[in-house]
Amino acid sequence: MTAGGDGGQDGQGSQGGQAGIAHNQSVLKAVALIGCFVDSPEGKTLTELSRQTRLNVSTAYRMLQTLVRTGVLRREEESERYFVGPLLLALAGATFSSGGYGVVLDVLRGMSEETGESLSLGIRDNDCVAVLLSAGSNHHFRFEHRAGDRLPIHCSGMGKVLLAYGNEPHAEAVARLGRLTALTPKSIIRSDALADELAAIRARGYALGDEEHHIGVRSVAVPILSGNEPARAAIGVQGPVSRMSIEAVERLVPILKSGAELVARLPLLSRLPV
After folding, report:
1. What are the extents of the domains in the chain?
2. pLDDT tier for residue 20 given thresholds of 50, 70 and 90
3. CATH no. for 15-88
4. Sequence-ordered list of residues with C-beta below 8 angstroms from that of 5, at least 6 positions apart, any chain
5. What is the topology classification, in CATH, of domain 100-271?
6. Alpha-carbon distance 120 to 159, whole Å?
7. pLDDT averaged over the chain?
8. Residue 6: pLDDT above 70?
9. Is 150 a residue whose pLDDT tops 80?
10. DSSP 83
11. Cα–Cα distance between 258 and 254 in angstroms, integer?
Protein backbone atom coordinates (compact mmCIF):
# COMPACT_ATOMS: atom_id res chain seq x y z
CA MET A 1 0.00 0.00 0.00
CA THR A 2 1.38 3.40 -0.95
CA ALA A 3 1.42 6.42 1.33
CA GLY A 4 -0.63 9.50 0.56
CA GLY A 5 -2.26 12.24 2.58
CA ASP A 6 -3.03 11.53 6.21
CA GLY A 7 -6.74 12.01 6.32
CA GLY A 8 -9.91 12.47 4.37
CA GLN A 9 -11.12 10.26 1.59
CA ASP A 10 -9.79 9.38 -1.78
CA GLY A 11 -11.91 10.20 -4.80
CA GLN A 12 -14.25 7.79 -6.49
CA GLY A 13 -12.19 4.62 -6.16
CA SER A 14 -12.55 2.08 -8.92
CA GLN A 15 -10.41 -0.87 -7.80
CA GLY A 16 -12.01 -4.26 -7.27
CA GLY A 17 -15.38 -3.16 -8.67
CA GLN A 18 -15.76 -0.50 -5.97
CA ALA A 19 -16.45 2.41 -8.32
CA GLY A 20 -18.33 5.22 -6.62
CA ILE A 21 -17.21 4.22 -3.11
CA ALA A 22 -14.96 6.62 -1.22
CA HIS A 23 -12.31 5.07 1.04
CA ASN A 24 -10.94 6.71 4.17
CA GLN A 25 -7.17 6.74 3.72
CA SER A 26 -6.40 6.81 7.45
CA VAL A 27 -8.44 3.65 7.99
CA LEU A 28 -6.71 1.91 5.08
CA LYS A 29 -3.30 2.80 6.50
CA ALA A 30 -4.27 1.62 9.98
CA VAL A 31 -5.50 -1.70 8.58
CA ALA A 32 -2.24 -2.07 6.64
CA LEU A 33 -0.23 -1.56 9.84
CA ILE A 34 -2.35 -4.04 11.80
CA GLY A 35 -2.00 -6.58 9.00
CA CYS A 36 1.78 -6.56 9.44
CA PHE A 37 1.38 -8.44 12.73
CA VAL A 38 -0.10 -11.60 11.24
CA ASP A 39 2.36 -14.39 12.13
CA SER A 40 4.81 -11.90 13.74
CA PRO A 41 5.02 -12.94 17.42
CA GLU A 42 8.44 -11.25 17.65
CA GLY A 43 6.86 -7.84 16.98
CA LYS A 44 7.87 -5.13 14.53
CA THR A 45 9.98 -1.99 14.68
CA LEU A 46 8.86 1.36 13.30
CA THR A 47 11.35 1.02 10.45
CA GLU A 48 10.08 -2.46 9.56
CA LEU A 49 6.47 -1.30 9.60
CA SER A 50 7.25 1.76 7.50
CA ARG A 51 9.04 -0.37 4.92
CA GLN A 52 6.38 -3.09 4.84
CA THR A 53 3.44 -0.69 4.41
CA ARG A 54 5.34 1.82 2.26
CA LEU A 55 4.26 4.59 4.61
CA ASN A 56 6.82 7.27 5.38
CA VAL A 57 8.23 6.99 8.89
CA SER A 58 6.51 10.09 10.30
CA THR A 59 3.08 8.98 9.04
CA ALA A 60 3.59 5.45 10.34
CA TYR A 61 4.70 6.78 13.71
CA ARG A 62 1.61 8.99 14.10
CA MET A 63 -0.69 6.12 13.16
CA LEU A 64 1.08 3.76 15.56
CA GLN A 65 0.74 6.25 18.42
CA THR A 66 -3.03 6.23 17.94
CA LEU A 67 -3.20 2.44 17.66
CA VAL A 68 -1.19 2.08 20.87
CA ARG A 69 -3.29 4.64 22.72
CA THR A 70 -6.48 2.79 21.80
CA GLY A 71 -5.10 -0.63 22.79
CA VAL A 72 -5.07 -2.08 19.29
CA LEU A 73 -1.28 -2.37 19.50
CA ARG A 74 1.23 -2.08 22.31
CA ARG A 75 4.78 -0.76 22.33
CA GLU A 76 7.58 -2.32 24.32
CA GLU A 77 9.66 0.58 25.61
CA GLU A 78 12.87 -1.36 26.09
CA SER A 79 13.07 -2.82 22.58
CA GLU A 80 10.96 -0.14 20.87
CA ARG A 81 9.06 -2.92 19.12
CA TYR A 82 5.31 -2.99 18.50
CA PHE A 83 3.08 -5.97 19.27
CA VAL A 84 -0.60 -6.92 19.08
CA GLY A 85 -2.40 -5.01 21.84
CA PRO A 86 -4.99 -5.97 24.47
CA LEU A 87 -7.98 -4.81 22.42
CA LEU A 88 -7.14 -7.08 19.47
CA LEU A 89 -6.38 -9.98 21.81
CA ALA A 90 -9.71 -9.54 23.59
CA LEU A 91 -11.55 -9.36 20.27
CA ALA A 92 -9.82 -12.50 19.02
CA GLY A 93 -10.64 -14.30 22.26
CA ALA A 94 -14.32 -13.35 22.03
CA THR A 95 -14.50 -14.47 18.41
CA PHE A 96 -12.78 -17.77 19.17
CA SER A 97 -15.11 -18.45 22.11
CA SER A 98 -18.40 -17.60 20.41
CA GLY A 99 -17.53 -19.34 17.16
CA GLY A 100 -16.50 -22.60 18.76
CA TYR A 101 -12.77 -22.21 18.13
CA GLY A 102 -12.03 -23.68 21.54
CA VAL A 103 -14.01 -26.78 20.65
CA VAL A 104 -12.21 -27.02 17.31
CA LEU A 105 -8.86 -26.82 19.06
CA ASP A 106 -9.97 -29.60 21.42
CA VAL A 107 -10.96 -31.69 18.38
CA LEU A 108 -7.55 -31.13 16.78
CA ARG A 109 -5.75 -31.99 20.00
CA GLY A 110 -7.82 -35.14 20.40
CA MET A 111 -6.98 -36.24 16.86
CA SER A 112 -3.32 -35.43 17.44
CA GLU A 113 -3.29 -37.70 20.49
CA GLU A 114 -5.07 -40.45 18.56
CA THR A 115 -2.86 -40.26 15.47
CA GLY A 116 0.42 -39.20 17.08
CA GLU A 117 0.86 -36.53 14.38
CA SER A 118 0.33 -32.78 13.97
CA LEU A 119 -3.11 -31.49 12.92
CA SER A 120 -4.12 -28.21 11.27
CA LEU A 121 -7.29 -26.44 10.23
CA GLY A 122 -6.99 -24.10 7.25
CA ILE A 123 -9.04 -21.91 4.95
CA ARG A 124 -8.40 -20.61 1.46
CA ASP A 125 -6.70 -17.22 1.12
CA ASN A 126 -6.42 -16.52 -2.61
CA ASP A 127 -3.67 -18.84 -3.90
CA CYS A 128 -2.68 -19.99 -0.40
CA VAL A 129 -4.07 -21.84 2.58
CA ALA A 130 -4.14 -19.82 5.80
CA VAL A 131 -3.71 -21.98 8.90
CA LEU A 132 -6.24 -20.93 11.56
CA LEU A 133 -5.55 -23.48 14.28
CA SER A 134 -3.05 -26.26 14.89
CA ALA A 135 -2.18 -28.97 17.38
CA GLY A 136 1.36 -30.33 17.53
CA SER A 137 2.58 -33.89 17.75
CA ASN A 138 4.33 -35.21 20.86
CA HIS A 139 6.99 -36.91 18.74
CA HIS A 140 10.47 -35.41 18.96
CA PHE A 141 10.74 -35.74 15.18
CA ARG A 142 7.64 -34.04 13.79
CA PHE A 143 6.38 -31.50 11.29
CA GLU A 144 3.75 -28.94 12.16
CA HIS A 145 2.18 -25.74 10.87
CA ARG A 146 1.62 -22.75 13.11
CA ALA A 147 -1.53 -20.65 13.23
CA GLY A 148 -0.96 -17.82 10.76
CA ASP A 149 1.19 -19.86 8.36
CA ARG A 150 0.29 -19.55 4.67
CA LEU A 151 0.87 -22.53 2.38
CA PRO A 152 0.83 -22.54 -1.44
CA ILE A 153 -2.57 -23.98 -2.31
CA HIS A 154 -1.35 -26.34 -5.05
CA CYS A 155 1.40 -27.90 -2.91
CA SER A 156 -0.48 -28.85 0.26
CA GLY A 157 -3.06 -31.48 1.15
CA MET A 158 -5.43 -28.90 2.64
CA GLY A 159 -5.00 -26.63 -0.37
CA LYS A 160 -5.74 -29.33 -2.90
CA VAL A 161 -8.80 -30.55 -1.03
CA LEU A 162 -10.16 -26.98 -0.85
CA LEU A 163 -9.69 -26.64 -4.60
CA ALA A 164 -11.28 -30.03 -5.22
CA TYR A 165 -14.34 -29.12 -3.15
CA GLY A 166 -14.52 -25.48 -4.27
CA ASN A 167 -17.25 -23.65 -6.15
CA GLU A 168 -15.63 -23.80 -9.61
CA PRO A 169 -14.95 -26.56 -12.14
CA HIS A 170 -11.49 -27.95 -11.51
CA ALA A 171 -9.93 -26.74 -14.76
CA GLU A 172 -11.19 -23.20 -14.15
CA ALA A 173 -10.01 -23.21 -10.53
CA VAL A 174 -6.53 -24.28 -11.62
CA ALA A 175 -6.41 -21.75 -14.46
CA ARG A 176 -7.09 -18.93 -11.99
CA LEU A 177 -3.94 -19.85 -10.08
CA GLY A 178 -1.75 -18.88 -13.01
CA ARG A 179 1.76 -20.25 -13.24
CA LEU A 180 2.38 -23.02 -10.70
CA THR A 181 5.73 -22.91 -8.89
CA ALA A 182 7.57 -26.04 -7.76
CA LEU A 183 8.61 -26.15 -4.11
CA THR A 184 10.10 -29.63 -4.45
CA PRO A 185 10.74 -31.99 -7.37
CA LYS A 186 7.41 -33.65 -6.49
CA SER A 187 5.29 -30.48 -6.72
CA ILE A 188 2.56 -30.60 -9.36
CA ILE A 189 3.16 -27.69 -11.72
CA ARG A 190 1.27 -28.76 -14.86
CA SER A 191 -2.23 -27.33 -14.89
CA ASP A 192 -3.79 -30.39 -16.53
CA ALA A 193 -2.09 -32.71 -14.03
CA LEU A 194 -3.36 -30.65 -11.09
CA ALA A 195 -6.91 -30.62 -12.51
CA ASP A 196 -6.76 -34.43 -12.84
CA GLU A 197 -5.47 -34.67 -9.28
CA LEU A 198 -8.41 -32.57 -8.02
CA ALA A 199 -10.87 -34.87 -9.77
CA ALA A 200 -9.23 -37.89 -8.12
CA ILE A 201 -9.40 -36.18 -4.72
CA ARG A 202 -13.10 -35.46 -5.18
CA ALA A 203 -13.71 -39.09 -6.12
CA ARG A 204 -11.93 -40.59 -3.10
CA GLY A 205 -12.85 -37.91 -0.54
CA TYR A 206 -9.40 -36.89 0.66
CA ALA A 207 -6.18 -35.28 -0.57
CA LEU A 208 -2.64 -36.56 -0.23
CA GLY A 209 0.30 -34.16 -0.19
CA ASP A 210 3.21 -36.41 -1.07
CA GLU A 211 6.43 -34.44 -0.37
CA GLU A 212 5.12 -31.61 -2.57
CA HIS A 213 5.72 -28.86 0.00
CA HIS A 214 8.67 -30.31 1.93
CA ILE A 215 10.77 -33.34 1.04
CA GLY A 216 10.28 -36.04 3.66
CA VAL A 217 6.84 -34.78 4.73
CA ARG A 218 3.52 -36.34 3.77
CA SER A 219 0.10 -34.86 4.54
CA VAL A 220 -3.50 -36.01 4.35
CA ALA A 221 -6.48 -33.65 4.34
CA VAL A 222 -10.27 -33.80 4.19
CA PRO A 223 -12.82 -31.04 3.55
CA ILE A 224 -15.15 -29.66 6.19
CA LEU A 225 -18.53 -29.67 4.50
CA SER A 226 -22.00 -28.39 5.31
CA GLY A 227 -24.73 -29.83 3.08
CA ASN A 228 -24.03 -29.23 -0.60
CA GLU A 229 -22.02 -26.06 -0.05
CA PRO A 230 -18.38 -25.77 -1.22
CA ALA A 231 -15.77 -26.51 1.43
CA ARG A 232 -15.11 -23.52 3.68
CA ALA A 233 -12.23 -25.18 5.52
CA ALA A 234 -10.12 -28.32 5.65
CA ILE A 235 -8.45 -30.44 8.29
CA GLY A 236 -5.02 -31.88 7.58
CA VAL A 237 -2.51 -34.10 9.32
CA GLN A 238 1.22 -33.80 8.60
CA GLY A 239 4.11 -36.01 9.47
CA PRO A 240 7.38 -37.57 8.26
CA VAL A 241 7.10 -40.07 5.42
CA SER A 242 8.71 -42.68 7.66
CA ARG A 243 5.53 -42.72 9.79
CA MET A 244 3.00 -41.68 7.14
CA SER A 245 2.93 -44.88 5.10
CA ILE A 246 0.07 -45.73 2.74
CA GLU A 247 -1.28 -48.06 5.44
CA ALA A 248 -1.12 -45.21 7.95
CA VAL A 249 -2.93 -42.88 5.54
CA GLU A 250 -5.80 -45.38 5.23
CA ARG A 251 -6.06 -45.41 9.02
CA LEU A 252 -5.93 -41.62 9.29
CA VAL A 253 -8.67 -40.76 6.79
CA PRO A 254 -11.63 -42.00 8.91
CA ILE A 255 -10.24 -40.13 11.93
CA LEU A 256 -9.99 -36.92 9.92
CA LYS A 257 -13.50 -37.33 8.52
CA SER A 258 -14.95 -37.83 12.00
CA GLY A 259 -13.22 -34.65 13.19
CA ALA A 260 -14.45 -32.73 10.14
CA GLU A 261 -18.04 -33.80 10.87
CA LEU A 262 -17.76 -32.46 14.42
CA VAL A 263 -16.37 -29.11 13.25
CA ALA A 264 -19.07 -28.81 10.56
CA ARG A 265 -21.72 -28.57 13.29
CA LEU A 266 -20.17 -25.53 14.97
CA PRO A 267 -21.08 -21.83 14.37
CA LEU A 268 -17.49 -21.29 13.24
CA LEU A 269 -18.10 -22.84 9.83
CA SER A 270 -20.82 -20.42 8.75
CA ARG A 271 -18.52 -17.47 9.56
CA LEU A 272 -15.79 -18.60 7.21
CA PRO A 273 -15.72 -17.42 3.57
CA VAL A 274 -16.52 -19.84 0.76
Report:
1. 15-88, 100-271
2. very low
3. 1.10.10.10
4. 25
5. Beta-Lactamase (3.30.450)
6. 12
7. 84
8. no
9. yes
10. E
11. 6
